[in-house]
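Running this now, will post back.
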Amino acid sequence: MGSKGIGEIGIVGTAAAIGNAVHHATGIRFRDLPMTPDRILPQLS
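Update: finished.
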């Protein structure tokens, strides 16, 4: 149908916000989800 629930509208930008926070903290841009610690930490070494 393409309709969204009322709670879905507020969470749409969450993954992008977390991705930007990780980029600002580490300087590395991650373009794949999920961004788990075991995928982020090896990039920092």
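The chain has a mean pLDDT of 83. More later if anyone needs it.
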